[in-house]
């Protein structure tokens, strides 16, 4: 028996008007996995599906989003990490620097919204192994989700633990582009946004409360480097960038140029300039 998974479907808030108030329901999906072919596992999926369906239906504010069964979960996980999580992190770093407290505020800014869509479709989607999926529809559904103010996704919270998130969300895709020699300017801006964010000051001069498992090491590197040397300093974090990217001149140059755009003009203007390149 192969692994079976209920794929995450981006949640949207549905509104139904009553006499005095609107009823909002959150579309919820669950994750189920059958990991062996042993006889005792044969009913596992149905049991899990029943449990989660009853759990979701028992909560008045929720509704079941749907079920999708796949033989191989890895391409789907890769799609989620790069398109959903990668764009979320991009918006978190750059949006926070620009003064946006929540992801939906970024979506109200035409530049950030366009950047997130292009990041997903022009730079992340071409790196994926998944087949027979409408990635444009997926990207548009994610933008709809990001724009939902009821979700209250805080940029500061999403920006946490970036050293653990960057490799899967952005750097793996960048490695594909470097091998193919294809464009990845928005991914470079996302990495530069993280470097600027963990440097500890936003575009308005306010201190950032950086939360990261490597925060002590990052702070030491930041304090020991000038702004001009910040990119090279933090690319020395082999826990994040491995040993290959810091030695790749194309990678270093692209991230350095993106970082300079942010430091010269601020995150929002850097987004606009990158879109116009």
Keywords:
single chain, 13 helices, 277 residues, three-stranded mixed β-sheet, globular, mainly alpha
Folded structure, characterized:
- The chain has 277 residues and is mainly alpha-helical.
- It contains 13 helices and three strands.
- It has a three-stranded mixed sheet with strand order 1-2-3.
- The longest helix is centred in the N-terminal third of the chain and has 25 residues, at 74-98.
The run of helices and strands is EEHEHHHHHHHHHHHH
Largest sheet: 3 strands, mixed
Q: Structural class, from secondary structure content?
A: mainly alpha
Helical amount: 55-70%
Strand content: 5-15%
Distance between the termini: 49 Å
Tally the helices: 13
Shape: globular
The Rg value, from CA coordinates, equals 20 Å
Query: What is the tally of beta strands?
Result: 3
Question: How is this fold's topology laid out?
Answer:
Elements: E1 13-17, E2 22-28, H1 44-57, E3 62-64, H2 74-98, H3 103-107, H4 110-124, H5 135-146, H6 155-158, H7 162-180, H8 185-198, H9 215-223, H10 230-234, H11 238-241, H12 249-265, H13 267-276
Parallel strand pairs: 2-3
Antiparallel strand pairs: 1-2
Helix pairs in contact: 2-4, 2-7, 2-8, 4-5, 4-13, 7-8, 8-12, 8-13, 12-13
Task: Give a quick rundown of the structure.
With about 280 residues, the chain is mainly alpha-helical. The protein contains 13 helices and 3 strands, in the order ββαβαααααααααααα.
């Amino acid at each position: 028996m192969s692994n079976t998974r209920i794929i995450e479907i981006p949640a949207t808030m549905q509104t139904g008007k009553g006499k005095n108030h609107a009823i909002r329901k959150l579309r919820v999906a669950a994750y189920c996995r059958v990991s062996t072919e042993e006889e005792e596992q044969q009913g596992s999926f149905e049991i899990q599906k029943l449990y989660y369906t009853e759990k979701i239906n028992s909560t008045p504010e929720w509704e079941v989003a749907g079920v999708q069964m796949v033989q191989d979960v890895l391409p789907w996980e890769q799609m989620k990490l790069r398109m959903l999580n990668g764009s979320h992190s991009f918006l978190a770093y750059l949006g926070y620097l620009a003064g946006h407290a929540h992801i939906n505020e970024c979506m109200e800014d035409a530049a950030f919204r366009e950047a997130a869509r292009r990041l997903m479709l022009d730079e992340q989607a071409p790196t994926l192994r998944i087949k027979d999926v409408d990635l444009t529809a997926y990207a548009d559904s994610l933008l709809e989700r990001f724009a939902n103010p009821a979700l209250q996704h805080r940029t500061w919270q999403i920006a946490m633990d970036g050293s653990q998130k960057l490799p899967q969300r952005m750097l793996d895709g960048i490695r594909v582009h470097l091998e193919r020699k294809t464009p990845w300017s928005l991914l470079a801006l996302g990495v530069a946004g993280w470097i600027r964010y963990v440097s500890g000051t936003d575009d308005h001069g306010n201190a950032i409360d950086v939360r990261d498992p490597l925060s002590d090491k990052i702070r030491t590197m930041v304090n020991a480097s000038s702004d001009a040397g910040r990119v090279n300093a933090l690319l020395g974090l082999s826990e994040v960038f491995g040993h290959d990217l810091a030695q790749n001149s194309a990678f270093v140059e692209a991230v350095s140029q993106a970082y300079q755009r942010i430091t010269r003009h601020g995150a929002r203007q850097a987004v606009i300039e990158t879109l116009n390149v």
